[in-house]
């Protein structure tokens, strides 16, 4: 007896045409299984990406996840590169599925990026917040005249030697 997929055939009853039909149906069964596997792989890839994206807390992590899924050697890109292994009649459908996945992941990334930028901006505003009810800082205007600077240095030097400064009418 031969077992192909879910069916069991008796080898003695199989002729040449029946063996061909059996192999063809087995191939069709395997193709459907591969299609299911690919669809499951695409769905699981989307769920993994979605979970990772929702857990992100910084723009740096977002960039890393973006490269992981959409980069040159990313997981979605590797699916597109693997299209050569798919039969020509199924490539269009598979390409549509992968492109849809790519668009959905890109949309999630963009949505999360805007949310992270908004959060980072709010943190920045909280950090740099100014209390407008406080008094302003005293601003000093202008500089001392050069003669006054020299006079102050002389007074400082003579007081350091023990002299005292008295102000009064000119002598």
Mean pLDDT: 78
Number of discrete helical segments: 5
Q: In which range does the helix fraction lie?
A: 55-70%
Categorize the overall geometry: rod-shaped
What is the H/E order?
A: EEHHHHH
Round the Cα radius of gyration to an integer and report it: 40 Å
| Quaternary structure state of the chains depicted | single chain
Going by helix content, strand content and strand pairing, the class is mainly alpha
What percent of residues are in strands? under 5%
Question: How can the largest sheet be summarized?
Answer: 2 strands, antiparallel
How far is the first residue's CA from the last residue's CA? 135 Å
- Number of DSSP strands? 2
Which blocks of ≥5 consecutive residues have pLDDT under 50? Answer: 1-30
Lateral strand order in the biggest sheet: 1-2
Please characterize this protein's 3D structure.
This protein has helices at 16-55, 59-70, 75-81, 88-127, 146-160; strands spanning 2-4, 7-9. It is mainly alpha-helical and 171 residues long. The protein has a two-stranded antiparallel sheet. Helix 1 (16-55) runs parallel beside helix 4 (88-127) and helix 2 runs antiparallel to helix 4 (88-127). The chain is rod-shaped and about 110 Å long.
Brief descriptors of the model:
mainly alpha; single chain; two-stranded antiparallel ribbon; 171 residues; disordered N terminus
In short, what is this structure?
With 171 residues, the protein is mostly helical. 67% of the residues lie in helices and 4% in strands. The chain is rod-shaped and about 110 Å long.
């Amino acid at each position: 007896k031969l077992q192909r997929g879910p069916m069991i055939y008796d080898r003695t009853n199989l002729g040449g045409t029946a063996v061909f039909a059996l192999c063809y149906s087995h191939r069709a069964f395997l193709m459907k299984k591969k299609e299911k596997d690919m669809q499951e792989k695409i769905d699981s890839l989307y769920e993994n990406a979605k979970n990772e994206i929702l857990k992100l807390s910084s723009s740096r992590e977002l960039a890393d996840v973006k490269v992981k899924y959409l980069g040159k050697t990313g997981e979605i890109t590797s699916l597109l590169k693997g299209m050569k292994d798919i039969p020509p009649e199924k490539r269009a459908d598979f390409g549509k599925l992968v492109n849809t996945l790519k668009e959905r992941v890109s949309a999630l990334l963009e949505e999360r990026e805007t949310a992270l930028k908004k959060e980072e901006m709010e943190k920045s505003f909280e950090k740099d917040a100014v209390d407008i009810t406080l008094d302003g800082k005293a601003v000093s205007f202008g500089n001392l005249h050069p003669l006054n600077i020299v006079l102050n240095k002389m007074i400082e030097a003579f007081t350091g030697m023990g002299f005292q400064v008295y102000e009064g009418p000119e002598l």
